[in-house]
Design a protein that fits this description.
Radius of gyration: 25 Å
Number of helices: 11
Number of strands: 2
Distance between the termini: 21 Å
Oligomer: single chain
Structural class: mainly alpha
Strand order of the largest sheet: 1-2
Shape: extended
Helix content: 55-70%
Largest sheet: 2 strands, antiparallel
């Protein structure tokens, strides 16, 4: 499968080349925004300043290493580079449209931003708490239009290849429920119970349990802050104390790693994945070839 998908997801470009491509893409986007805003009756200067950030150290991710897991667990609370200070571009950010916007009346400014980003949704149209809302470029102003102009022909999101992409998603969903992995999960679960961590049915359940506890902790802080909103500075909310959960994460991740090694979980998963992917390639080779050709040709 990697043979067909590498064109889409592995550019092979250096960091410098990726940054250059990103800058060119942003320039194209901002030029389109300026074109759209002019058609809407406003002045707009493309905003293409370099405001990128880079971390001071390279991030190493090795969750199959006992030394790494002993330090970071699953890498959810603590992870390489977490405490590194971001290094900002030396260029000071200046909004090139600030003077023009400030010269407009209040109603004109409102119209400017509605043209740029789309109208603010009415309160009844806002999604309920915890509900996801689908982004609609047609209601996102000139930025939405420019995004569609750039990504409208994106092979990865085009309707032409959507059936193939849906089939690939289904492939990996089916893989997790295959008889071989179901058996491997059962062996892993038994091992975890023997190690003092019962209640997990599938291997991913262990990591998900830490994620759920993290979300619960952050939601608790958010709820506490909301309850005292009048007395609390909105910018004063701090992260909950995660030290205890971080230790729990490491303990659980080490037990998980032990059980994966004892049950050959990784080898089983890779074997199942290879077999299913090869069958998928055999069944969909023509569609995969067309998908890769469109990507390489930029269609």
């Amino acid at each position: 499968m990697a043979e067909f998908m590498s064109s889409a997801y592995d550019s092979g470009m250096s960091v410098e080349e990726q940054e250059k491509e990103y800058a060119e893409r942003e320039r194209k986007r901002e030029d389109l925004v300026a074109q759209c805003m002019t058609e809407e009756g406003f002045e707009y200067t493309p905003n293409v300043q370099d405001v990128s950030f880079s971390m001071g150290t390279d991030t190493e991710w090795n969750p199959d290493s006992r030394e790494w897991v002993s330090q970071y667990g699953y890498g959810m609370i603590n992870f390489p580079g977490r405490d590194d200070e971001p290094v900002a571009s030396e260029q000071e950010y200046v909004d090139p449209n600030a003077d023009y916007v400030s010269s407009l009346s209040e109603s004109e400014q409102t119209a400017f931003y509605e043209a740029l980003h789309g109208p603010t949704p009415d309160e009844e149209d806002m999604p309920a708490e915890g509900e996801m809302t689908e982004w609609d470029w047609t209601t996102a102003g000139c930025y939405g239009w420019s995004e569609n102009e750039i990504n409208g022909d994106d092979v990865n999101t085009s309707e032409k290849h959507q059936p193939l992409i849906d089939s690939m998603n289904t492939l990996y969903e089916d893989m997790m429920s295959s008889p071989e992995l179901t058996e491997a999960d059962a062996e892993w679960s038994s091992c975890m119970a023997d190690a003092g961590h019962p209640g997990f049915t599938a291997q991913m359940d262990a990591q998900n349990s830490i994620n759920e506890k993290m979300n619960s902790a952050y939601n608790g802080v958010s709820a506490s802050t909301s309850a005292t909103a009048e007395a609390v500075d909105p910018g004063a909310m701090v992260e909950p104390d995660m030290d205890e959960l971080a230790e729990e994460e490491i303990t659980l991740a080490l037990a998980d790693l032990d059980c994966r090694e004892k049950t050959n979980y990784k080898d089983t998963m890779e074997s199942v994945q290879f077999e299913l992917e090869q069958q998928f390639i055999d069944d969909h080779k023509a569609e995969l070839e067309a998908f890769r050709a469109d990507i390489e040709q930029g269609n």
